[in-house]
Design goal:
This is Zinc finger MYM-type protein 1. Pfam families: Dimer_Tnp_hAT. GO terms for molecular function: protein dimerization activity. By secondary structure, the chain is mainly alpha-helical. The protein has four domains: 1-32, no CATH class; 34-150, no CATH class; 163-248, no CATH class; 254-308, no CATH class. 71% of the residues lie in helices and 0% in strands. Helix 4 (64-84) runs antiparallel to helix 7 (126-149). The radius of gyration is 28 Å and the shape is extended.
Length: 317
């Protein structure tokens, strides 16, 4: 792909029109730079490690246990790349550059950067720039994202929730895990007395529901919850029914993300494609939370505008 792209750009530099030649020349210079090749290889390594997890999370029928195992292995592999992957990565980048005529900088030389110079930051070597500012920074960002989205607490919550899964004839059912789930994460939703009753309720549930033909071929907690109501067993096992409903609220946490993507398609049109990230974020917050935004009057906004700092302009009489 790299060779094909450079060939097309070289052809445009020679045979393209005036504007095409200018754009192609700039793109070709960037493409043939060491920094571009280096970033390309860093992205390849990180995306190669995270690809399996991304595919697992996008599956319609997710296996939570295997998905959580992939989360753990992904974190470990990214950390391993951070700790021990620099030398092999640099070797691959140098080999790639040598085979394609990309100039390789002297890693021990002082790295020159206009922004760093203007900000009067301490000078660093070229190796420091690529290893710390790009390689380590990119990996740390990925680890931060994984840790924030899949913390130990949320991972344990999902793992314990599997015990309620009706898939494969309640193969994952585990009364101890269900009790732990209620005690650790939903203690405020059940009294101490109800916690004790739940243990005995689970014993009856285990002998009753999995063997009932009406509950065969269920694959999700949502289907299980509906079936419990349909056959009246939600009244027989009210504590388990309540716990299932509480667990079913977990997917609601993705609603904000889905709404954000939907809003972005509406807000960032072709006429607004140069909108900066800060303004786009503010715009999307107002759009997504429009029910709250409608409560703000013009006078309230003007007063807040004045409160931020002293203004010369008089926006209201």
């Amino acid at each position: 792909m790299f060779n094909a792209t450079t060939s097309v750009l070289e052809d445009l530099v020679v045979n393209g029109t005036g504007s095409q030649r200018g754009d192609a020349t700039y793109a070709f210079r960037v493409l043939m730079s060491f920094e571009f090749v280096f970033i390309l290889h860093v992205m390849k390594e990180i995306m190669g490690i995270t690809d399996k997890l991304c595919q697992a999370l996008q599956q319609k029928n997710q296996d939570i246990v295997n998905a959580m195992c992939l989360v753990s292995s992904t974190k470990s592999l990214i950390q391993k790349l951070r700790d021990f992957g620099w030398d092999s990565l640099l070797e691959n980048v140098n080999s790639f550059c040598n085979s394609r005529g990309v100039p390789i900088p002297d890693m021990s030389a002082t790295y020159s950067d206009i922004i760093r110079t203007r900000l009067k930051k301490d000078s660093v070597t070229v190796e420091h720039h690529y290893r710390v500012d790009i390689f380590t920074a990119a990996i740390d960002y990925q680890l931060k994202e994984l840790n924030s989205r899949f913390s130990e607490q949320s991972t344990e919550l999902l793992m314990l929730s599997v015990a309620l899964d009706p898939k494969d004839a309640f193969k994952s059912f585990n009364a101890c895990d269900i009790c732990s789930l209620a005690k650790k994460f939903y203690s405020s939703d059940f009294s101490d007395q109800e916690m004790i009753h739940m243990e005995y309720e689970l014993q009856h549930y285990e002998f009753d529901v999995p063997k009932d033909p009406k509950f065969h071929n269920l694959s999700t907690l949502g289907e299980l919850c509906q079936k419990l109501v349909e056959v009246g067993k939600s009244n027989v096992y009210p504590l388990i029914d309540r716990l299932i409903r509480l667990v079913l609220t977990l997917p609601v946490s993705t609603a904000t993300t889905e709404r954000a993507f939907s809003a972005m398609k509406i807000i960032k049109t072709s006429l607004r494609n140069k909108m900066e990230d800060g303004f786009l974020t503010d715009y999307m917050i107002v759009y997504i939370e429009k029910e709250i935004a409608r409560r703000f009057t013009t006078d309230m906004i003007i007063d807040d505008f004045y409160f931020m700092k002293q203004r010369r302009a008089q926006l209201k009489k």
